[in-house]
Amino acid sequence: MSALVVEDVRMRFGGLIALQDIQMDVLQGERRAIIGPNGAGKSTLFNIIAGDVLPSEGRVLLNGIDVTQFPPYKRVSRGLRRTYQTSALFDTLTVSENLYLGALGPDGAAHFNMSRLAAAPAVVRRAELAAEAVRLTGRRRARAGDLSHGERRQLEIGLAIANEPRLILLDEPAAGLSADERYLITELLLGLDRAMTVMLIEHDMEIALTVGERVTVLHEGAVIAEGTPASISANPLVQQVYLGRR
């Protein structure tokens, strides 16, 4: 079954066509990389899938349900999570406390006591598993504001997976990382639970082609190629518009 279907999606901003006739079918458990040069429409596509903006035309289906007009919180309740290019964390809280909030998920109460939340066995267990998955078990007592840039990226992914989502959108998870940090993030992404469907936008081609089982290439708002990492690497059009080769 498909985790995500994008049908004939177009996005206009005034006279600018940011996306045109986007078709995409992502299977449950798939790892899909979205690549393309700056301005290709990658983040706009994620914004439409997440519900941050509504498409000018077309439909978005999550697990067979048409969510095109759903606001973000309704998509979250159906198992969608997203990270952004800039990390958004609760800097005054510890790593564990951040993960408790992620583990609480969209069905939690509007008001809660952190100490009671931290004592809830199910929440604690999900937070511990998330910390382990993103390699932050030894940093659980550290404040998020004291983490390195790479650790903040790890924690952001931990927040996204703590409530066991069905589909996770990662917007440039390796942006600004050192070579060692990029290697760690790659290993982390490869180790994510296969019950989750993972889509990532990534400018680091090595990461995109290592993590992505299928790769979609955008250029000027349109899909110009889609296939396995090997076929994308060998595609002359991709080499010309993205890799700068002729």
The biggest sheet, with number of strands, parallel, antiparallel or mixed sense and barrel status, is: 6 strands, mixed
Low-confidence stretches: none
CATH H-tier superfamily of the largest domain: P-loop containing nucleotide triphosphate hydrolases
Tell me the span between the first and last alpha carbons: 38 Å
- What percent of residues are in strands? 25-35%
Average pLDDT value? 92
Fraction of residues in helices?
A: 25-40%
Could you tell me the CATH topology label of the largest domain. Rossmann fold
Please give the order of strands in the largest beta sheet.
6-7-8-3-9-10
Topology pattern, helix = H, strand = E: EEEHEEHEHHHHEHEHEEHH
- As for the number of domains, it is 2
Structural features, described:
By secondary structure, this protein is an alpha/beta fold. It folds into 2 domains: 1-79 and 165-246, P-loop containing nucleotide triphosphate hydrolases (Rossmann fold), CATH 3.40.50.300; 87-164, no CATH class. It has 10 helices and 10 strands. The strands form 2 sheets. A 6-stranded mixed beta sheet has the order 6-7-8-3-9-10, with helices on both faces. A 4-stranded antiparallel beta sheet has the order 2-1-4-5, with helices on one face. Strand 7, helix 7 and strand 8 (197-201) form a beta-alpha-beta unit. The longest helix is centred in the middle third of the chain and has 13 residues, at 121-133. The mean pLDDT is 92.
Question: Brief description of this entry?
Answer:
By secondary structure, the chain is an alpha/beta fold. 35% of the residues lie in helices and 25% in strands.
